[in-house]
Amino acid sequence: MAKKKNRTLHPDEPLLHADHPRPVTRREFISQGFLAGTGAVLAPSMLGMLAGTRQAHALSSDLEALKAISECNIVAGADKIPFICFDLAGGANFAGSNVLVGGQGGIQDALTSAGYSKLGIPGDRLPTTFLATDPFVNLDLGIPFHSESSMLAGIKMRFTNATNVNGAVIPARSDNDTGNNPHNPMYGINKAGARGELLTLIGSQNSVSGGASMAPASMIDLSVRPTKIDRPSDTQGLVDTGELSAKMGLDNATRVMESIQRISKKKMDKMQTNPTASPDLDDVAIKKQVKCAYVKSADMVESFGDPTALDSSAADPIISQIFTPAELGDAGSGSNGDSEFRKTAAVMKMVLNGYAGAGTITMGGYDYHTGNRTTGDARDVRAGQCIGACLRYAELLNKPLMIYVCSDGSLSSNGTPDAGADGKLVWTSDNSSTACSFFLVYKPGGRPVLFASGSDGLTAAQHQQLGWFRPDASVETSATPAANNVNLLVETVILNYMALHGETGNFTGATGVFPEQGIGDNAMLDRMTAFEPIVDGKASIPV
Asked: In the chain, fewer beta carbons within 10 Å around the N or the C end?
């Protein structure tokens, strides 16, 4: 009797595995593709949406001066590098068939052919020289990808000018099929200084972390719990400036609010308090509070009186260069679009315009060991397209960006080729030992440079892989503190985020952001740093 042929599944079809129980939790439904990993955004303070295109009538010079930190402290976020996390729920493959990995000598320290087979790479397509002339190595993104990587193919569908990108991989084991992996770094990124103008944090899931994976318990700050956003249209409802701008027009509404502020200030200046009768009444503080309240209102109307300021549909002239109306399912397009593209458009607009400090995009259905290769490749292509869209948006805005990609556990191949996938090896089972995470960094004006302190005895190339794999393609769990501890993997991601700002010295110590960090001493912090700084403390000050 002929063996039943595995059918290639559409990227939105759910995954049913004979060796998995029926999903019962929300996270399990997401990882197997029964629920979409709906879109998300992250950021801090309430005046969030100031960055981006300004209206023709900016605030008058006297009110503009009052926005200073020394006055009303109305600032456009924290001016930190935008940060986006892709949480691919289910246990996706990154190592080998997508991002290349190697032994103790770094990515270019080749594994055995059996090890590469375990990672889904056929014996006739092994990387050898790791040079641009190697037919199975692609160096377009700085970090080596396998030339047949589906994720890379997806990235290049949306983003082609990759000369300003580099990346690093972190070999680190995490458990399969569980939401207990604390992969989500958002609270830590916020502690490192990232915040937006409108929101504190946002995630595509209604969870404490905002994603499918947990956040490290020691980093959680419920005062900045992520706000859930499902679709681009939701972003337009984040700010309500009332009827004033609708009835009077944006310019006139802003001028009215400015006039109200000036009138109020004149009246407040005449107000006198009696400190003897009311010793707890702070005259100066009251006047400042009233003054700044009107300045904030005027600034809010000027920035967001036009609801299209937050529109992440293809009506946005920049987003329209990345996604079509049909892909986003815009009204009148005659298409339902793709929910993954819609959430990506919403998140990248919020984060890269400074409206949010960081954002999580959860994508479901990455538990794709279906006995073939085509199902997983199709999902990797779509994840790559979403990653590429964020890189392209950063390029169009001329903004730096850090993208972190993680998944709960991983999988492996038994060496069986899939004729339907041009002989690539099928994904057959979950395998936490082949897991890793990686991150990409976009720097306007030039490719990020690998860290080379010399104090750790490593070459710059060895900093592109923070840890290593054994020859059989299993994570060497003793290689780094992060290799067998997901909490420390997250600390490593945050360390690298701060290093991009030149702020490694603020990571630890009595006055540091993480005084009780578990990575180690300064030598180990250097060992776990991938890149030299790309900005000097602030995203607006490149180096």
From this structure: N
Residue identified by tokens 């609270």 is 187
For the cut 50, the answer to whether the pLDDT of residue 416 exceeds it is yes
Give the separation between CA 400 and CA 501, rounded to whole angstroms.
11
Q: Give Cα separations from 153 to 141, 162, 182, 471, 524 (angstroms).
A: 12, 13, 29, 27, 35
Residues 212 and 286 both lie in one domain:
no
What pLDDT, in 10s, does the model give residues 383-396? 999 999 999 999 99
Q: Look up tokens 């000097």; give the residue.
A: 536
pLDDT of res. 41: 37
Q: Which residue range(s) make up the domain with 111? A: 35-50+78-239+310-447
**Would you list the DSSP string of 298-364?**
HHHHHHHSSGGGG--STTSTTGGGTS-HHHHT-TTSS----HHHHHHHHHHHHHHTTSSSEEEEEE-
Q: Count up the domains in the chain and report the number.
A: 2
Element (H, E) at 244: helix 244-248
Q: How far apart are CA 347 and CA 343, in angstroms?
A: 6
Angle between helices 150-158 and 374-397 (to 10 degrees): 30
Domain end position, chosen among 298, 330, 348: 298
**pTM attached to this predicted model:** 0.82
Q: Convert 420-433 to b/e letters by CB count within 10 Å (16 or more is b).
A: bbeebbbbbebbbb
Residue 161 within a domain:
yes
Task: Determine the 3-state secondary structure of 393 from DSSP.
Answer: helix
pLDDT at 232: 72
262 and 213 in a common domain: no
C-beta atoms surrounding 277 within 10 Å: 7
Q: Rg (Cα) of the chain, in Å, rounded? A: 25
User: Considering only CA atoms, which of 338, 334, 283, 83 is closest in space to residue 192?
Assistant: 83
Q: How many Å apart are CA 480 and CA 467, to the nearest integer?
A: 6
Reading the block at residue 305, the tokens are 């009186």
Phi, psi for 340 (deg, rounded to 5)? -70, -35
**Which residue has tokens 């936490």?**
432
Q: What are residue 106's phi and psi, to 5 degrees?
A: 115, -175
DSSP 8-state code for residue 465? B
Residues 237 and 244: their CA atoms lie apart, in Å, by 16
Contact 15, 33 (CB under 8 A): yes
Contacts of 363 (CB under 8 A, 6+ apart): 37, 86, 87, 88, 89, 340, 379, 382, 383, 386
